[in-house]
Every structure is written in C-alpha cells, then in structure tokens.
C-alpha cells in the first residue's frame, strides 16, 4: 500500500465527493430517526495543506484553493466551504477536512459513525482526530469486510466507499460490498467514489453493479479533460445507491462547477440503464 491521501487532499475529486456527501448528510440528518454512517476507507481525517505532500502535488491549490477564492460558486458547495472555514477559524485555508471530520461534525446526538482505515499510521492519526466524539468509532481494519459486518439490520444507513484503487480487485470488492450491505439492510444508501480513466473500466463496473444489486442507482461524472489517455485520472465519478429525490440536480451543479476547473471538462449526471 503506497497510496497517501495527503498528496491529493482538497483536489477537485475531494471537492466533488465531499460536497455531495455533505448535501446527502444534510438530508439524512434532517429526517426522523437516528442515522448510522460507515466510512470504509477513512484516511487520516484532517490534512495539512502547508505540509510537504500538499505543496509538492499542488492539487489542493488547484482545488480547494480555487473554490474558496471563486466568486461563481453554486450554493450546493456551501456546507463544504462553511466546514472548511470553520476548521480554519475563518482564516487562510491551511487545513482540509477529510470525510471523517466532515461526517463527525454533521451528525446529531444519537447518530453513529464507524470510520475504517487499514494503514496503521493513518489510523493512529485518525483515532486522535476523532477522539472523544460521542457515537464515533474508528477501526484499523479492512473497510469492505467491516461495512458488511457492521451494517445494522434496520434503520437508516449511509455507507461511503472511497478506495485508493491501488488494487485491481477494488472494483469487484465494491460490488461485493454493496450486495452484502443490501442483504443485511435493503434500505442502505451508499456513496461510492471512483476514478475516471477510460470508459471501458467504468462501464464494466456499472454493468457488474447493476447485475449484482437490484436498487436505484445514480451516476455523477466529473470529467476534467477528454478521456483520451487511460493512464491518467481524467476525472472522477460518484455512484449513489438509493439516492434521495432532488440530489441529482445538486450533483449537476457540483460536478459542473468542478469540471470547469479542468481543460475541456464536462459533467454528466444520469441513472444507468434509464
Ligand atoms: N475517504 C477519505 C476522505 O474523503 O477524506 C480518503 C480516503 S483515501 C482515498 C483511501 C484510504 O483507504 C487510504 O488512507 C488507505 O490507506 C486506505 N485503505 C486502503 N485499503 C483499505 C481497506 N481495504 N480498508 C480500509 N482502508 C483502506
């Protein structure tokens, strides 16, 4: 495992994923009954944008740096920009929140959150970042297996799956995990992040998912450039299982704005097979 999210924290892909996550959490926490959130690939929780990794890649500057400075930002980004401002005490953006920090601050008393991170050094930082938060647990464990084992049999559940895609079997394990969490609780909702390199890989994943899971799906693609070079991350996609009404229009605004950070970028939100 070589992947270090510190190089990528706050890039366009994080903006899309985190803005969508917060919009969905906003709906779920406005509804009745408690909520369980499981984050299969949590990372370290908080990222230092003044650190060597962020400086070297320049990805945060081209992502969250531009978002916070832009005048044309759609309102759909407001929960994310407010969270980033709060984390930085209203000053310049030196820290960027990962999914664990964003989820933990969005939950209400009585809600529960399990954050899984396999790499022990990352997990140690994560545990510290989330310590003493009621309802929050971390596990230094394989998030795919933990999600299936820990999905409650009833109640409202949101699973976030955000792998590093270092391993060829990540696509198959996502499909297996989504089928598994649905077997435990048919109403489980999920948000999956995937890279867009070439369309063949992504389309094959979607076909496998549709075969394995009989539930409403929504796809939101953010292409930063035409998908001409399959060795590059040319964009990213979010796949939503059991998406709530009204989120598609918000995803169009989020992905459309983020695609504008690219060169010849474009966004597309659709229900596969429709
Ligand atoms: N979700 C985080 C966020 O939005 O802030 C970023 C997660 S990063 C893309 C992926 C993380 O998954 C890495 O920290 C990596 O160490 C971890 N990881 C890799 N394989 C894993 C597995 N099987 N289970 C849990 N974590 C894993």
What is the element layout, followed by pairings?
Elements: H1 12-30, E1 35-39, E2 46-48, H2 52-57, H3 59-62, H4 64-69, H5 78-87, E3 95-97, H6 99-106, E4 112-116, H7 120-129, E5 136-139, H8 143-150, E6 156-161, H9 170-184, E7 189-196, H10 199-212, E8 217-223, E9 235-241, H11 247-259, E10 266-270
Parallel strand pairs: 1-4, 1-6, 4-5, 6-7
Antiparallel strand pairs: 2-3, 7-9, 8-9, 8-10
S-adenosylmethionine (SAM) binds at residues 1, 3, 5, 17, 40-43, 98-99, 116-119, 122, 142-144, 162-164.
What can you see in these coordinates?
By secondary structure, this protein is α/β, with parallel strands linked by helices. It has a single domain (5-270), classed as Rossmann fold (3-Layer(aba) Sandwich), CATH 3.40.50. It contains eleven helices and ten strands. The protein has helices spanning 12-30, 52-57, 59-62, 64-69, 78-87, 99-106, 120-129, 143-150, 170-184, 199-212, 247-259, and strands at 35-39, 46-48, 95-97, 112-116, 136-139, 156-161, 189-196, 217-223, 235-241, 266-270. The strands form two sheets. The chain has an eight-stranded mixed beta sheet, sandwiched between helices. The chain has a two-stranded antiparallel sheet with strand order 2-3. Helix 1 (12-30) runs antiparallel to helix 11 (247-259), helix 8 runs parallel beside helix 9 and helix 9 (170-184) packs parallel to helix 10. It is globular and about 45 Å long. The termini are far apart. It binds S-adenosylmethionine.
């Amino acid at each position: 495992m070589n992947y270090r999210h510190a190089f990528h924290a706050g890039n366009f892909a994080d903006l899309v994923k985190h803005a969508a996550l917060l919009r969905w959490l906003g709906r779920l926490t406005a509804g009745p009954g408690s909520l369980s959130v499981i984050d299969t690939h949590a990372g370290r929780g908080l990222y230092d944008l003044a650190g060597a990794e962020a400086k070297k890649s320049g990805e945060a500057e081209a992502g969250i740096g531009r978002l916070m400075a832009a005048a044309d930002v759609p309102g759909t980004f407001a929960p994310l920009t407010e969270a980033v401002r709060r984390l930085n005490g209203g000053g310049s953006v030196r820290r960027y929140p990962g999914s664990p920090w964003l989820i933990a601050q969005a939950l209400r008393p009585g809600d529960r959150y399990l954050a899984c991170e396999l790499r022990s050094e990352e997990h140690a930082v994560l545990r510290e970042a989330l310590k003493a938060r009621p309802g929050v647990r971390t596990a230094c464990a394989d998030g795919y297996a933990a999600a299936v084992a820990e999905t409650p049999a009833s109640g409202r559940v949101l699973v976030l799956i955000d792998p590093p895609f270092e391993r060829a079997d990540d696509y198959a394990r996502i499909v297996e995990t989504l089928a598994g969490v649905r077997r435990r609780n048919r109403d489980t909702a999920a948000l999956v992040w995937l890279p867009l390199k070439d369309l063949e890989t992504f389309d094959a994943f979607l076909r496998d998912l549709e075969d394995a899971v009989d539930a409403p799906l929504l796809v939101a693609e953010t292409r930063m450039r035409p998908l001409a070079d399959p060795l590059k991350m040319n964009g990213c996609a979010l796949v939503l299982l059991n998406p709530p009404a009204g989120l598609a229009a918000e995803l169009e605004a989020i992905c459309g704005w983020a695609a504008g950070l690219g060169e010849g970028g474009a966004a597309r939100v659709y229900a596969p097979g429709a």
